[in-house]
Specification:
The chain is of the alpha+beta class. The protein is 22% helix and 25% strand. The chain is built from seven helices and 21 strands. The strands form six sheets. Strands 11, 14, 17, 18, 19, 20 and 21 form a seven-stranded mixed beta sheet that branches. The N and C termini lie far apart (72 Å).
């Protein structure tokens, strides 16, 4: 037997370091080649790194939240055949390092009891089927842990079908379907709640916090909001969806807005730009690479719709759906999450009346779509029921003057209120 030292590989061009998000193995576990080893994050993209060889895990370096440089040691494996390091003679079994903890390191930890101790499952329950070492924490992704926490299920009683006993959503569903969750469900009641939960902010949530802080610290934001009558747009959208329901993707407001942006940008090139404030260079882009803010179980991601100016409505709708699905499933690549020139954010039915979106640095503008509502308005001296929507735009005041921002949003208003203009050169 020999030792194989596995180091963090190059996970992307120009990437010097990555953040550890979740370990899939523990010290002492025996793994096979290509088993999931560790998740790392770069530029909001999470990459699952597989095991290069099979063997026994001797040591792990780094805890979730730690940043590791490319080429640094991650794991030492005991393998058959030739390794990369001379075997060491341990004087005594080494203590299990804190870095050997799996993704559970990111699980919220109550500083004080929040509820009475939960009863153990009855005899013959799922607990008897769980083959987990005493004191070992169950392996599960942060999403599974969050869901189990919300359902009031102790993962220590749930058997996992994944590598090393890793618990999946399917395992949790099976546990609940067999009626095991009832034994550990949280008590209901309106009594007083006490205690404080501490949660280490790591992974995507930390990256979002850093990006938002950087944006607000470096960019002097201001927001301009305009009211739009989208009655004609909604009528057109409904007709197109009915006509092409069987053979084309469903159109939302976003494809029309992106087409309006592509039409307006040649007149207002300063809003489709990236500003290198350290170098003092503004890069105005001819192409519209639209960032689509997308809410995912892990947090907010911004996949990029490239060359939107060259797409029709259905191509835009198809690409938005593909990118959103990739982001939510954690499969979006680094290239799909970088390089946007102007970002669009929408809360859909939750859009509210007005938003003040935060600019996606180093861009200089972001457009926010608010909720469409029917309400009475005055048209030609008469009261009519119209479909109204507010459009919010935040701008970098260093680059985009208030007058230009207002004219830009007014141009979008004209195009969306008279949607035929979107298709007339």
């Amino acid at each position: 037997m020999s030792q194989y030292v596995f180091k963090l590989p190059d996970v992307g061009e120009g990437i010097a370091e990555a953040e550890l998000v979740a370990w899939h193995v523990q010290v002492g576990a025996t793994i096979a080649e290509d088993d999931p080893l560790v998740d790392v994050m770069t530029d909001k993209a999470t990459v699952e790194i597989p095991a290069p060889r099979g063997g026994k895990v001797l040591s792990i370096t780094g805890s979730p939240g730690d940043k590791v440089r490319v080429g640094s040691e991650l794991v030492v494996l005991e393998v058959e055949g030739e390794g990369t390091a001379a075997p060491q003679k341990p004087a005594s079994p080494p203590p299990k390092p804190a870095a050997a903890k799996p993704a559970a390191a990111s699980e919220p930890r109550p500083a004080a009891p929040i509820a009475p101790p939960r009863p153990a499952p009855p005899n013959g329950s799922e607990a008897s089927a769980v083959t987990r070492a005493a004191g070992a924490k169950p392996l599960a992704s942060p999403a599974v842990r969050r869901r189990a926490h919300e359902l009031g299920v102790e993962l220590q009683y749930v058997s996992g079908s994944g590598p090393g006993g890793r618990i999946s959503h399917a395992d949790l569903d099976g546990y609940l379907a067999r009626g095991r969750g009832a034994a550990v469900a949280r008590p209901q009641g309106a009594g007083r709640r006490e205690g404080v939960e501490e949660e280490k902010i790591i992974g995507l949530r930390r990256r979002i916090a850093e990006r938002m802080h950087e944006s607000k610290r470096r960019i002097p934001h201001y927001t301009y909001v305009e009211e739009l009558d989208v009655s004609a747009l909604e009528d057109l959208r409904a007709q197109l969806n009915d006509r092409h329901a069987a053979d084309r993707p469903r159109l939302t407001v976003l494809p029309f807005l992106i087409r309006a942006l592509a039409r307006a940008i040649p007149r207002f090139p300063q809003v489709n730009a990236q500003f290198d404030d350290e170098g003092g260079v503004l890069r105005r882009h001819a192409a519209l690479h639209a960032g689509i803010a997308t809410q995912t179980p892990q947090g907010l991601l911004v996949p990029v719709l490239r060359h939107a100016e060259a797409m029709d409505l259905w191509e835009i709708a198809t690409e938005i759906a593909r990118l959103a699905a990739a982001a939510r499933d954690g499969k979006a690549s680094r290239d799909e999450l970088t390089g946007s020139t102007l970002t669009i954010t929408s809360l859909g039915p939750l859009g509210g009346i007005v938003t003040t979106p935060v600019i996606n640095h180093p861009e200089v503008a972001i457009i926010g779509v608010n909720r469409i509502v029917e309400r009475p308005v005055v048209r030609g001296g008469q009261i009519a029921i119209r479909k109204m929507m507010n459009l919010s735009g935040s701008f970098d005041h260093r680059i985009v003057d208030g007058w230009d921002a207002a004219r830009f949003v007014q141009e979008l208003k004209a195009l969306l209120e008279q949607p035929a203009l979107l298709f007339v050169e």
